[in-house]
Amino acid sequence: VVRAWIDAYPYQFKFVVALRSGHGESMIAVRMAPTTSTSWSITGTVLHGWRLVQGRVHIADGAIAAKAPHGARLVVLPDGWIVAPGFWDLQVNGFAGAEIGDDPDQIAHVAAALPAHGVTGFCPTLVTRTPGAYRRAQQALAETRWPEGGARNLGVHLEGPLLSPHRAGSH
User: Fold this and answer.
1) pLDDT at 86 over 90
2) Pairing assessment for the beta strands 27-31 and 15-19 based on DSSP bridges
3) Is 161 helix (H, G, I), strand (E, B) or coil?
4) Which positions ≥6 away from 40 have C-beta within 8 Å?
5) What is the rounded average pLDDT for all residues in the chain?
């Protein structure tokens, strides 16, 4: 079970989300804006490519750094914890009791809830709907107040009826 995530794309440190045990809601989420002056050196098991290795991830002024800056805060992860990139979910129709649709508050609720599960970026996904419903959803997405500590919007994912003009409405 991956227990700690760092969103390092594009080399900007956004979140540390650490889970203490395999399932459940026991975690720590620390918001780190790219402009932060906080410096960290995180030591433990690191996902490097496709392998888990012992190592360090250094953060200087909010970005991944080649070496630890002077005065960096040292964090040693417990055994079994892993430092890895934040997850991107490319199809989110809803989450945490809220739906992606025509309500900006529900869209913001989804974005706020995702980081607690390691998702730092997502594509709000609109299921097949009428042209009028697409327009209402477009307006809701434009009016959404994206939460400061929430998963970021990577772009809207549209499901049908756009997949095939011969099978409109299928997906």
Assistant:
1) no
2) antiparallel
3) coil
4) 57, 58, 59, 72, 73, 74, 75
5) 76
